[in-house]
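Before a colleague's protein record goes any further, I have to sign it off. What it holds is a sequence and that sequence's fold in token form. My question to you is simply how this chain folds and whether the tokens agree. Thanks in advance; the entry in question is below:
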Amino acid sequence: DMASKYPVAVGIDAKAGYVAVEGWAEVSEMKATTLAKEFAGAGVEAIIATDIAKDGTLSGVNIDFIKEIKKASNLPVIASGGVKDINDIKLLIKNKIYGTIIGKAFYEGTINLKEVFKTIKEKK
């Protein structure tokens, strides 16, 4: 109901492809792609997809997981978890992923925001 009145982005946090709940303390039996499909026709504007096994690790984005969520929902997806450097940004752009959350990579200095914005501008 809320998505019919306001712009809404829904977060799906997952580990090994299954939805994580209770502050990531538990992993449910529901596949993240199944949940993503439920939002396909619900008026949701985007999905923020987090691979919690990658979050904060600077080990690179899980592009396969992000692509699966995009395919299942047919919605714009914002990638979260594991972004390491500009190569991850380029990979996301190449796969037409709507956006990403850059956290630890920024704080640790492994990514330069000026370079990110330049890369985005060049791809448009």
Remarks:
- The mean pLDDT is 93.
